[in-house]
Design a protein that fits this description.
2 helices; Immunoglobulin-like; 47% strand; alpha+beta
Length: 147
């Protein structure tokens, strides 16, 4: 009984520390809220999952260039290493860029995007100061044909 209590306690403490660390990373002063939208350009059903190719439109309203090093979709029940994609993208100050990324997502998550709740993108960003930060961007859907 006690060992189960301590295991849950350790897990809760580790989770709290990870969330606190992630919160600190998200508070990068060099980042002015990035914004974005997505369009599904291809979808393939694989069992209970969908492999989707997304066209992402990202906007940097800030006054500094940002270097995006990794991207991941965040709205899954858990974020796995397989969901993180390496990326080398410079997002210039006051500009927008379009990129295409492929992800495998649970079908239930994909279906939930049809409502007002679109996916969120986690971006690992190298700031002008040389520091890394994590930015969460809520993606709004745009219309378009799915192949």
């Amino acid at each position: 009984m006690n060992s189960q209590f301590f295991r849950r306690g350790k897990f809760s403490l580790a989770l709290a520390l990870m969330l606190a660390f992630a919160w600190q990373l998200c508070q990068g002063n060099d980042i002015k809220r990035l914004s974005g939208s997505y369009r599904v350009i291809h979808k393939t059903e694989i069992g209970l999952q969908n492999r989707i190719r997304l066209q992402l439109h990202l906007t940097n309203p800030g006054q500094s260039d940002l270097v995006i090093q990794r991207v991941a979709l965040w709205d899954f029940s858990h974020l796995s290493r397989e969901g993180v994609r390496a990326c080398s993208l410079v997002l210039r100050a006051g500009s927008s860029v379009d990129i295409t990324q492929e992800f495998t997502v649970p079908r239930s998550e994909y279906e939930s995007w049809r409502g007002s709740r679109g996916p969120r993108l986690l971006l690992e960003v190298m700031l002008p100061s040389g520091r890394k930060a994590i930015e969460a961007v809520h993606l709004n859907g745009t219309s378009g044909k799915v192949n």
